[in-house]
Amino acid sequence: MGADGVSSPNIKRVPSTKPPFTLGQVKKAIPPHCFERSLLRSFSYVVYDLLISSLLGYIATTSFHLLPSHFAYVAWPIYWILQGCVLTGLWVIAHECGHHAFSDHQWIDDTVGLLLHSALFVPYFSWKYSHRRHHSNIGCLDRDEVFVPKLKSQIPWHYMYLNNPPGRALGLAVKLLLGWPLYLSFNASGRPYDRFACHYDPYSPIYSDRERLHIYISDLGIFATTFVLGRIAITQGLAFVISIYGVPLLIVNGFLVLITYLQHTHPSLPHYDSAEWDWLRGALVTVDRDYGILNKVFHNITDTHVAHHLVATIPHYHAMEATEAIKPVLGEFYRFDSTPFYKALWREARECLYVEPDEKGVFWFMNKF
């Protein structure tokens, strides 16, 4: 145990010992049809989300200017939130394409993923490759790609002055508003590399030589989206683009940070160094959460993430059934937290400040400076 105390002592820790089951046993518990990918069914979710998004955009562009100003001040934030949620669902489907969980055809998955992610200013292949390494190294302090907790000795000196409600609120605001673009552009919160790492740079140390062409393709997707938005801004005005697309995109980015942060940050979760880590124990270093109705809007990426890290190719529409099937196998190694996400976000920001090893060399979150 670290000298400064463990965060949230009333929360039961996930076991850090070697699991008494294998990945093969986990997969065997999942009904065979859960591994089946239906191209028609997968596309139906894309079409549904696009229709809802288009409907929201149509209502906003054709009706809001007719409203009295005091009603418009209410209508626009409602549109931004609803559109941001729907677009987050589309982002999740593109993420699924990157895991080859959309269809049986890799080229279809990559084409759909590239189009959807590019439209949301995400470099599809660039993030697909770094995210794949996250799945390969989750829970390893030395090799995981994102949301890698720091040791106390690595915490900047000024953090202790931000460890209070105003400082915490400021930190969360910056994380939710800027965390995603800062990660893509500057590898903020990512694993350290020996030189500058950026998802838009084909020669970034994140990528191997054989991946570099795909990084160029990802960049072209971003340039194409930028060009289209620029043309719209010329004809409709910059304010139009910001209100219809820009603000919802900020909400998408905020949800991405919120979801991934809470999936991998919890007082009960252990972390391991390279000497102690193995893939199965690392894959269990995640937690399922309850976002209420947003679970469905986000295609259950929120409440089936444990199963996703164990078998990433399961489509989202089978993920709930797969999760229920593996719970008896995982036993106390499975973690679900029903705390409302906004309360959990504040708690984790307060309790999970850094990690320190216990006497067995397993690292746990601490909260005292």
TrEMBL record:
Bilayer-crossing regions: 45-67, 73-95, 169-186, 213-234, 240-262
Biological or metabolic pathway of the protein: Lipid metabolism
Residues covered by the Fatty acid desaturase N-terminal domain: 14-52
CDD domains: Delta12-FADS-like (cd03507)
Entry GO CC: membrane
Residue span(s) of domain Fatty acid desaturase: 75-334
One GO molecular-function entry: oxidoreductase activity, acting on paired donors, with oxidation of a pair of donors resulting in the reduction of molecular oxygen to two molecules of water
Main location: membrane
Pfam families: DUF3474 (PF11960), FA_desaturase (PF00487)
Keyword Glycoprotein: no
Location of the protein in the cell: Membrane
Family: Belongs to the fatty acid desaturase type 1 family.
Protein name: OMEGA-6 FATTY ACID DESATURASE CHLOROPLASTIC
